[in-house]
Predict the 3D structure of the following.
Amino acid sequence: MTRQTLTMAMTAAGLAGIALPAAAQDICGGAGANGQWIGGSEAASDVSVSDNYMEQMALVLMGNEYVALFNVSAPTDVRVEAAGRGGGDPVIDLRDAGGTIVLSDDDSGGGGASRGEMTLNPGTYCLSMASYDGSPMTGFVRVGRTEQEALTEGTSMPPVSPPETPGDFTGGGGGCSAVSNYLADGGPIDGSLDMGASVTASVDQVDAWGFSLGTAQAITITAENPSADPLVTLYDGSGNYLGENDDFDGLNSRLDMTSPLPAGDYCIEMVALSDTSLPITVTVSGFDPAAQLASLYERGEAAPPMDGSYPITNMGALGNRVRQDLQTTDVTTWMSFDIDAPGLVVVEAISNGIGDPIMVLYDDFGRLVAENDDYGGDLDPLIAARVLPGSYLVGVRQLNEGETGLVRMLFERYMPAQ
C-alpha cells in the first residue's frame, strides 16, 4: 500500500509532531489552533488536487483529541476516516472554517473505525479524532476523494438518500428520502420547543421523523431505548447532512445542535443497531446549555464547578489512607480532596461484585487526569496518578443505566522518598 503523506503527531504534553502546526489561531472557530496540516503543509493539504489520499498517524492521550487540517479548492466529494490500532475506537468530527460541525461519526467505518463521505465546498476544514472512551489510542486519520483508496471497509448499511424533492416530506417509508411522520401528533413543530415533543415507535414501524421550525432555533434530539441501541441522523429539507449521534448516554443517542437552525423542514433518520422491532422514544426540544452541562457532570464527562453550585463532598486534606462508603447510581457522585505536596494518589472503587462502577479523576482546572472502568480482571476501577499541590475531583457512577450498588472507596497517598 502506497502512502503519499505519513506523519506522526502527538497530543500529549512534551511530544512534538512532524506535520506542520496551523499558524492561525481562529481556524475552524479555534478548534484547529493546535492542528496539523495533513499533507505536511498548508500548500500540500488541498484534497481537491492531491494525487493521492493524505494520511497521518496520531497518538491521543489523556482524553485529548488530534486535529488534522485540509483545504478544498473546488466542490469535491470527500471521504474522511479514522481507524484505531490494537482495538482503539476512534470518533471523528469534521468542522468547517467557522467551527460548525458538518459531519460526526463513530463506527461507520466498520470494526470500531469511523468514516464519512460528503460533498465539501471550497474552504478550510478540521478533522478531529478522539478516543471513544478516553483511553490512550494510536490511530490513523485519512482524508481523500471518494474515488481514492479507502482506509476502512465501511459498514454494510446502504447510504442514505436525500429527499427526492427539497422539503418534500410527503412520501411513506424509505428513511429521509420520503417522510410523512411529523412530531407533535402529526403537526409541524412551530419552533417553540421549550416543553419538547415526543413520539415512540420502532424503526420497523417508522424509520424517519420530520419536523418543522417556524423560527431559527438551537435544538436537542434524543432517542431512547438502550436495548434497541438507536442511531439518529439529522438532515435539512434539502437533504443536507447536519449531524448524527450513536452512543451519548450509554446506548441512548442525543444530538445537540448548539447553533440555531434556520426556519424550515428537517428530517431525523432512525436506525436501531441492535433490534429494529423495539420501541424508541424520540424527543425534539430546545437546546438548553445548562441542562447539557448538568448531563455532562452526571455522566462524569466533565468536572463540575467547585464553587458550591453543584453537590460535591469535600474530604479536605487527603490523609495517607482514607476509606469512604458510597451508595452509587448511574449518576456520578463527586468528591474532592486537597493535596499539599507532590506525590502519588491511588483510588479504588470496590463493589464486591455488585454492579459495575466507573471512576474519573480531574484536577481543579477541570482537566481529566485519569479514568478507569475495569482493573485487574474484575469490574472494579482503580486509578493511580501523580499529583501536584492543589484540589482534585473524583467521580464515581454505575456504568449501566438504572443500576445501583454500594461502593467502598479507598484513597491512598504516597510521598516520594527523600
In short: Confidence is low (pLDDT under 50) at residues 1-24, 156-173, 178-195.
